[in-house]
Design brief:
Layout: E1 2-5, E2 11-15, H1 27-41, E3 66-70, H2 75-80, H3 87-96, H4 100-103, E4 109-113, E5 121-122, E6 125-126, H5 133-143, E7 150-154, H6 156-162, H7 170-175, E8 184-187, H8 195-200, H9 202-220
Parallel strand pairs: 3-4, 3-7, 7-8
Antiparallel strand pairs: 1-2, 5-6
The structure holds iron/sulfur cluster (SF4).
Amino acid sequence: MIVKLDAKGQFSGIFMAEHSDKIPLQPANTNRMDNLLNEVRACTLCEAHLPLGSNPVVRASPSARLMIIGQAPGTRVHKTGIPWNDPSGDRLRSWLGLDREQFYDSNNIAIMPMGFCYPGKGKSGDLPPRPECAPRWHEALLEQMPQLQLTLLIGQYAQNYYLKDSYKTLTERVRNWRSCPPGLIPLPHPSPRNQLWLRRNPWFEEEVIPEIRRQVHELLDQS
Ligand code: SF4
């Protein structure tokens, strides 16, 4: 993973490592990641806005090749500390053709939401991820994962943050997923609340999912 900064040093995008461009891991990388994850887990930056307090849910390793960037934990994930440990996660695993053991192998798969802590309830479902979180932590974590080759951007918050495109809707963006920068794939949220979207857009599960599953397995089978 290569993080790109603009002339003012602000985050402006990411590039994936080439498949053949394996960067040897140094022991120091693991130590740096461990220290960073300890810092993340101690974060209370926006705790004043969190109804259940801070409990950052993130999984990362310097050897990870696939990154999943989602939205924010729900209450069940907050309680267990396990990302995607809910019906949304069940559907995501089914889309990717991965069992729980494969999905939670952080040596291969990193998981970080746009907001690491449960943000609370709004009028129609959970509130958006806290806006402080991704700018505070994402770049630092991505820099410690040089082997990442594929990133799944799940839902509008991750896509709006990482994709500088002009699509007006998530549907339009997902339909044109092949036009995204290499290594970045936008997906709708697999929440049961999105059942209607899935029914209205059958092309997604019929055409897009098999191709994404193929790419994920090709990547994970490299080990
Ligand atoms: S949501 Fe992110 S920034 Fe806020 S307390 Fe949790 S880890 Fe820190």
